[in-house]
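Progress note, sequence design subtask.
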């Protein structure tokens, strides 16, 4: 459904580069079809701002310093159903494109695009269209062809994958998400099966290609830092159960992953 043709489209920008974000908001605001509703440098600050900021379109980067843009997409689709999400990111992997659309993105455009192309895309989204670049169209066609054989990851899986790939311990993940430690191990096994990951480097590579890690180099081996602890936001569900009695890491024994929980 098209937005009100008699009102400027309110666009909120979520990106962690302040100079670039300010410039982008100024360019958007200079177009009479748009109004810059606000900016946020992280998922957490965007969540707080959007509680009292009415918007029509959220322009979202995937590489954020706290939660990933994919998790932010999941939050927006449940908490701000009327907002349309356009992913505008330097991360252009096939996996990121596929996951963004599976979590409700209306459009995906890379930061290498011309600003005129971005504005045109925003106008199309505002009138109810789902514009695609040729590359995005190709990725989605390939996704549809193989979709019947592979079940997609859930929002809960994405959050757990980010924490696992960052080296966070099982007990810490269980505490942060409200899922039992045994549930985290089960989730690890489920994620590995769905994405074909068996070792720690496999998980880290995929997390990097999805934009889940704040510090990522294409080749595994660089030092990765876990994201900062944040106040809880409604991005994942809960699962009952008891926690582990000892500090156990899901990445155990070099680059091998423990597939079942140790005895408690």
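Output:
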């Amino acid at each position: 459904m098209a937005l009100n043709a008699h009102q400027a489209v309110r666009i909120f920008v979520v990106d962690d580069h302040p100079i670039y974000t300010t410039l982008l908001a100024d360019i958007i605001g200079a177009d009479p079809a748009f109004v810059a509703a606000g900016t946020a440098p992280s998922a957490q600050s965007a969540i707080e701002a959007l509680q009292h900021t009415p918007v029509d379109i959220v322009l979202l980067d995937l590489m954020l310093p706290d939660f990933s843009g994919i998790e932010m997409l999941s939050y927006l689709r449940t908490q701000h159903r009327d907002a349309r999400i356009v992913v505008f990111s330097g991360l252009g992997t096939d996996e990121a494109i596929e996951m963004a659309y599976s979590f409700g993105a209306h459009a995906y455009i890379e930061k290498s695009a011309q600003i005129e192309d971005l504005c045109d895309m925003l106008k199309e989204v505002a009138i109810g269209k789902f514009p695609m670049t040729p590359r995005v169209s190709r990725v989605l066609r390939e996704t549809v062809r193989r979709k019947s054989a592979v079940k997609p990851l859930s929002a809960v899986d994405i959050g757990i994958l980010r924490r696992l790939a960052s080296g966070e311990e099982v007990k810490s993940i269980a505490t942060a998400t409200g899922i039992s430690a045994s549930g985290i191990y089960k989730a690890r096994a489920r994620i590995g099966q769905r994405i074909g990951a068996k070792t720690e480097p496999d998980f880290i590579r995929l997390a990097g290609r999805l934009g889940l890690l704040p510090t990522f180099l294409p080749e595994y081996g660089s030092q990765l830092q876990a994201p900062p602890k944040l106040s809880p936001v409604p991005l994942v569900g809960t699962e009952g159960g008891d926690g582990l009695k000892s500090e156990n890491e899901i990445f155990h024994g070099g680059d091998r992953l423990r597939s079942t929980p140790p005895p408690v």
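Residues 123 and 188 are 40 Å apart (CA to CA). Work on this subtask will continue into the next period as scheduled.
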